[in-house]
Design brief:
Layout (H helix, E strand, L loop, with lengths): L1 H32 L5 E4 L3 E9 L4 E4 L4 E10 L4 E4 L4 E2 L3 E8 L2 E4 L4 E13 L2 E4 L4 E9 L20 E3 L4 E2 L4 E2 L4 E2 L4 E2 L4 E2 L7 E5 L2 E6 L10
Parallel strand pairs: 1-3, 2-4, 3-5, 4-6, 4-7, 5-8, 6-9, 7-9, 8-10, 9-11, 10-12, 11-13, 11-14, 12-15, 13-16, 14-17, 16-18
Antiparallel strand pairs: 18-19
InterPro entries: Hexapep, Hexapep_transf_CS, Hexapeptide_acetyltransf, Trimer_LpxA-like_sf
Pfam families: Hexapep, Hexapep_2
Organism: Bacteroides cellulosilyticus
């Protein structure tokens, strides 16, 4: 009887050990596989980047001679890309936020962000594309999604994510929000405190909530007036 009792007790102990090891191993396995094949190529002249990446096959590239003074890159998902071109300047408190799969944020060569610029690409296959030599001031939001679904009376979703296209040499002034699905033409200016919900043609000034084109055939320069 003592032998049987010892065997049962021993097997019970082993069973408990296996059970608890499985509980510990499974989350560890998930954490390890959730960070496979993420690639970061940082060629910046100076970079201060806080990276929080969970997923697999994500790719981040920062071009040569770029200066990053305070950028948070947050990624949740797989097959996403963040590409910052050459000679870019990104100021403090900026953030690139990706949630979902196959999303992309691209910042073209020689773009500048003053500070507190938030780019957000969410859901599946959406992207934010900034052409070269764009000038973004401060407290700017550009996003491809509303983050939460909206349905019509038939329970059909009516606010799917949409890509944002911003051509080269676009000036975005402070406190401006660019919403999903918008295309901004080359040389355009988005005035302060505007909410951009529709396309803006090239060489136009758009202002207001929601923004409307208020001037056409305009041109701007990075040259300071003082």
């Amino acid at each position: 009887m003592n032998l049987i009792y010892k065997l049962v007790k021993s097997n019970s102990f082993l069973f408990k050990m296996v059970y608890y090891l499985r509980l510990l191993a499974f989350p560890l396995f998930i954490r390890l596989t959730w960070r496979i094949n993420n690639t970061i190529e940082n060629n910046a002249l100076y970079s201060s980047i806080d990276k929080d990446i969970r997923g697999c096959n994500n790719y981040i590239k920062i071009g040569i001679k770029s200066r990053i003074y305070g950028l948070k890159i947050y990624v949740r998902g797989k097959n996403n890309k963040v590409i910052i071109g050459n000679n870019c300047v990104i100021g403090k408190k900026c953030s690139f936020w990706i949630e979902g799969d196959n999303n992309t944020i691209i910042v073209g060569d020689s773009c500048t962000f003053t500070h507190t610029v938030h780019l957000c690409a969410q859901e599946y296959g959406s992207s934010i594309n900034l052409g070269e030599d764009c000038m973004l001031s401060n407290n700017i939001i550009i996003r491809t999604s509303d983050s939460h679904p909206i349905f019509n009376s038939d329970r059909e979703r009516i606010n799917e994510a949409k890509t944002v296209w911003i051509a080269k040499h676009v000036w975005i002034a402070p406190q401006t929000t660019v919403m999903k699905g918008v295309t901004i033409g080359e040389g355009a200016i988005l005035a302060s405190n505007s909410v951009i919900t529709k396309d803006v043609p090239k060489n136009c000034l758009a202002a207001g909530i929601p923004a409307k084109v208020v001037k056409e055939n305009i041109y701007w320069s990075r040259e300071r007036l003082f």
